[in-house]
Each structure stands twice: as structure tokens, then as C-alpha cells.
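quick one: adenosine-5'-triphosphate bound model?
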Amino acid sequence: MFFCTNQTLPVCSLSARHTIDDHLLASPGGEPSLIPVYNLKAAITGKHLLKTIIPANLNPLTHHPPLPAALLLSLLHQNLVGRRKRGQREAAMSLIQTSLQQCPAATTAFSQFLPSPSSHSSTKLSVRFTVSCCLSSSPMTSVNGNIDMQSSDRNEIRLGLPSKGRMATDTLDLLNDCQLSVRQLNPRQYVADIPQLSNVEVWFQRPKDIVRKLVSGDLDLGIVGLDTVSEFGQGNEDLILVHDELAYGDCRLSLAIPKYGIFEKINSVKELAQMTQWTAEKPLRVTTGFTYLSRKFLRENGLQNVVFSTADGALEAAPAMGIADAIVDLVSSGITLKENNLKEIEGGVLLESQAVLVASKKSLLGRKGLLDITHEILERFEAHLRALGQFTVVANMRGSSAEEVSERILSQPSLSGLQGPTVSPVFRKIDGEVKADYYAIVICVSKKQLYKFVQQLRAIGGSGVLVSPLTYIFDEETPRWRQLLSKLGL
Ligand SMILES: Nc1ncnc2c1ncn2[C@@H]1O[C@H](COP(=O)(O)OP(=O)(O)OP(=O)(O)O)[C@@H](O)[C@H]1O
Ligand SMILES: O=P(O)(O)OC[C@H]1O[C@H](OP(=O)(O)OP(=O)(O)O)[C@H](O)[C@@H]1O
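yep, here:
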């Protein structure tokens, strides 16, 4: 990413590698279908495809007010190394050229950089673009090398999801289970949408970048582990937990020390802090990816003389390599610690973590439509997660009236379900007359309690028990929604 200037206008250039193979291959009959992608007129208003080539933190197409027509798409580098026939390549180039010619500024750039046809000799077609936008006013600033497009200017709501790692698949599964499937046109594309939620852009990012971008205002909502929010959010009050228990990504952030040597008899943080070894000259050496939380935790636990080092993974190797005395890392099964001769100690858990839905408070209060979208996502998550732990049980019970059957059921507190049983008569023809001497009961039962429930039901005359999974349980109003409104002062 780089900046350049022209004489009168501030110009920002972004470069992004983008392969056009997929668009070519996807088109019926192998004919290039580049016009929607590279037609600059369409690009200015049609946000859809140009997003493919624009990095997450700048979207000139959705910039509001709309950018002046001088959106400059310049073809910088062309590397034709694909399985393209010469005719197809030429057709593609001609389409690009036609499209670019619709923007006078772009035409110049294109003719400057268009490679000669003789260079189209390889077997895979890939093109690197630079997207430049010229602005008559300058809403862009450069902050630590990042471009700040005054993100509040955009109209879309942005949801950040983990692009890879442990959380990625489970997050998509959760959304899928809530009928909020993410539609990603190309696995290499970092932007996607959720057809059920209009005006929502999904941006795939590394978990820590999701938190950073929530803080910078480049994302509005995100799903990451609580550990990541706590470490990279660093207590920032703009970050609000909308749902703090999404029921996956369970792990704990723990301090661990070797089982051997000077630590053999150390079994608690208190004992670790009381060791006389740690001095200003020879401090406790801790390797962690969570320096913010670790520093706070160790200080609060009386460990003053500590130095930190970081690594991107496999931290458990650090003590055995002689690089560290202790580590602070995520643990779930504990196998990695065990296999590396390390142990957790009493009082050494910094944080219990699982996946959470987090939002920017500023966005919630300022971005049009975000509160409604957040409400919908929250309701769907809550309804799905509540249902996950429950079965619906339908059973028959002989009785003289619905009230009498209900009384029998309610006499057993564990049979009362969420609000109480639904009891309805089962009509049969008895001696030529339609009568109800059986009642069907419908109750929600915790999955863990199912067998005990069936036994109790039988004990009071239940029979023909049918058990089925539940998809959603929508409550009257989710307590988390009320909590969110109160955190926002609404
Ligand atoms: N062993 C584990 N068991 C369960 N959940 C874990 C475990 N390790 C990590 N997690 C959760 O998954 C999240 C992502 O972890 P992962 O290691 O995949 O991140 P990453 O994107 O590869 O991070 P990094 O950018 O540091 O490489 C963590 O923040 C945590 O919430
Ligand atoms: O308690 P366990 O079930 O053994 O899991 C713990 C390990 O899982 C995570 O690492 P990950 O596998 O994501 O690899 P990494 O070390 O490269 O981050 C974490 O950093 C631990 O190393």
C-alpha cells in the first residue's frame, strides 16, 4: 500500500493482487465476463464486484458522499501465466480496455501500463491492479501506515469473521445454523455477504485484526474469542460484548511452568511469586502472545520482576529451549502442556474464554440500521443456542381432563418444561362416540435430563414418548438485548 500525490488532488493508491482466472473460468463457455468487474462506471455505483480488489480498510465505492468520478483503476502489472488461449486473453484485455476507456483518467493509466501482446505467452492469467481514487476533498488520513477513510462515512454495516484458525469454521457453522449463511463468491476473497441480512458486509480477518478494526471503526461487529477481545481491546470502552457465550472456542488463558528443576515444588502463583530468584537483574522470563493481560495479571499477583518475550505459536517449546521460565498461553485439553513437560498452577488461570459477539459502541450508537441488525443476530443466536440444549418431547397420557393431566405433570417439578406443559386432547371413537380419554403433552426437556425425564413421565402414566431436536427457542425478549440497551444508555 502506498501513497502518491498529483498536483491538485490528494490521491491514495492501493494495490491488491487479484487473479481474474476465476471470473474468466466462471463465465459460461469460458468467455471472459469482465465488464461487470472492471467497468468503472458500474464500479462507482455497483459495489459488488469491485470490492474484490479493494482492501478492507478502504472502499471508495461505498464512500459517502460518493467519490467524484475520477476513480482511477490503473493496471500496473500484468503477469500472464495461465492456461488461457491467446484469443481469450486478447478478448479479456480488450474488455478491460473498453471498460477503462469509460473513465478518462483511467485510460491514461491503462495505456501506460498495458503490456504488449507478445508478453502474453504463459499459461496462467493473473493481474495485479492498483485502485486509485482521487478526491476533491480529503477525508483520508494516514494513521500508522493505515488509511483512515473516516469510516463513519460508509453506509454498510460491517461484520468481521475469523479468516482462518480454530474459530473460522465454527463461526460459519453457527451462522449457518441460525439461517445466516455467509455467501463467499471466491475463497480467496475476504469480503462476503449474508443474503438474509441486507446491507451487511462480511469481512474475513485474523481475530486480532477484527478487534483492532472494531476499535478503529473499520468494523462494526465481530465474532472472536474473548481472549482476543481482552488482549487486543485492552479494556477499550468502545468494545461491547453483545453475546458472551457462543458455546464454541472454549479454552482458558493460563500461566504454565515446567514440571522440573526449580519449579518442581511450585504449585501455585503465590508460591511462584514468593520465589527469591526473581530480581531486577534476573527477572522471571515469560513467553506469551498475551503481553497486555499477562503483565496485568502478574503485577496483580505480586510478581514485579518479569520480562516478556513473544512468539506467534508453539510457545510451549520456550522453557525447554531455555528462552523462558514460564509461558502464558491458551489451553483446552492440556495435552500440549503435558507433552512439553509443563504444568498449570493454582490461581494461574488469567481468563476463561469462548467465542463472543462484540460490537463497537460508537457504531451501535451512530451507524444507521446497526442496532436492528444486532438485535436480529442476537435473537437468532440466542434462540439457536437455547434450543441446542433441549429436546421436544411429545407423549400421551391417560386422564379425565386436560387440567387433571396437567396437575399430575406439574406435581413433578422436573417435568414442567420451559413454561409448563402443553396438554391437548386426543380424540378417539369409543362405542360410536367421539371422546377424549388420552391427552397429548408437549414439553421441552434439557438434553442432559432426557432419560430421567422419560422415567418420571412413565411413572405418572406417560406412554408413546416421541423425542425430537429443537431448532430455535425464541423467548419474549432476550435479557442480553436489554443489557445491551442499558450499556448504550438507551
Ligand atoms: N486449544 C484451543 N482450544 C480451543 N480454542 C482455542 C484453542 N486455541 C485457541 N482457541 C481459540 O481460537 C481463537 C483463534 O485461535 P487460533 O490459534 O486459530 O488463532 P489464529 O488466528 O491462528 O491466531 P494468530 O493470529 O495468533 O496465529 C483463539 O483466540 C481462542 O479463542
Ligand atoms: O490444550 P490443548 O488442547 O493442547 O491446546 C493448546 C494449544 O492450542 C493452541 O495452539 P494451536 O494448536 O492453535 O497452535 P499454535 O501454537 O500454533 O497457536 C494453543 O496456543 C496451545 O498451544
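The chain has 17 helices and 21 strands.
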